[in-house]
Amino acid sequence: MKQLRLKGISKWFGTFQALKGIEITVGAGEFVSLLGPSGCGKSTLLRIIAGLESADEGEVWLDDCNFSCVPPQKRKVGMVFQNYALFPNLTALGNISFGLEVQGMDHEKARHEARCWLEKVGLKGFEKRYPHELSGGQQQRVALARALAPKPEILLLDEPLSALDASVRTALRNEIRQIQQELGITAIYVTHDQAEALAMSDRIAVMRNGEIVEMATPQNLYRNPASLFTAEFIGAASRFDGILLSIHPAIGQFGRFTLLLPELAYYAQPGMPITVMIRAESVGLARNTVEDRAITVLRGEVQMNNFMGNIIRLHVGLFQGGTMLIDLPAEDNCIFKTGEKIDIKVFPEACLVYDSKSGSSLLKGVPQAREMIKTAV
Fold first, then answer.
1. Sign of CA dihedral 6, 7, 8, 13
2. If you write DSSP's letter for every residue of 119-135 in order, what string do you get?
3. Buried-most residue among 126, 171, 246, 255 (CB within 10 A)?
4. pTM of the model
5. Number of alpha carbons in the 13 Å side-chain half-sphere of residue 328
6. CB within 8 A of 64, min separation 6: which ones?
7. List of E strands, 169-310
8. What is the pLDDT of residues 181-222, one digit of tens each?
9. For residue 87, what are the CA distances in angstroms to 97, 130, 341?
10. For 310-322, b where at least 16 C-beta lie within 10 A, e where not — what string?
């Protein structure tokens, strides 16, 4: 198992800067996802690690070895691409054994190793099939086996599941994670799918415009995102912009209504512009809340009712202004009609509070996004 460190990685394409001084450390045996919207620099960073692109600034270190100038074929890096990139004229067995033979392994031994890997990825009996005779999920399993067969020190995966059906994608992501844990290999996974990143990763690095916004465990990123960008990008949430009225108690003014807020950091000041994000599953229906003054009750009208299998997502137009998303368990007694009026309860703890200007969290105990990155490195 090897530790990977990126030191000040920057990359330009002409006048466009794709990466801006990326600093990141991936621990030995760790599974880290690079998560962000299209065009944020995820794949470019992965290609630099693989040696398929060169950085204009910065260094790539594997343990105590700087291999920034090492050619890709000597980096001991396995890579799985989005489009599979299998040799169309070789069978599944041939695709896996080819790389082993290029490294100097005996032909028969290479084919024996390839058979073992086909069995490990659930394709025993598919040795003689060509790529066009395999489904997308089967092709990606071959691509994964081909990347792992040479025993690389780092595994890189560039949106390998994006072209697959939902059920196949879920099954294969679990298999990838299981194999990675069994081998103890250090892995970096590029995706724009938050569900994949949350389900598979030890840590997630959230990227935007060529920078890492913050890096943390999936649980911390979801429950206490340090940046407004992360809070909006991950999960379904309602956004409200306003000003901070007071600190003790913490109260925010959002147009024609106020919200009770959780305890804020010492640098929060009355009058500052704030943004509050409220997760759809963090709010509920208010029924007997008259005597409970520790919550905010908002009234609104159902605008849309989406059945999503295990939940029902309501889009509620608030009478005081704005729209709120509410996720409720998909039960018969939770069916609401368009136009129906409901009361919504919002606990202070449901509010993720940010400085509207900097986008940094104002919650007590949640570090600044940049501080989180430094801690991670």
1. negative
2. HHTT-TT-TT--GGGS-
3. 126
4. 0.91
5. 21
6. none
7. 186-191, 203-208, 211-216, 237-246, 251-254, 257-260, 273-279, 284-285, 296-307
8. 999 999 999 999 999 999 999 999 999 999 999 999 999 999
9. 12, 9, 59
10. ebbbbbbebeeeb
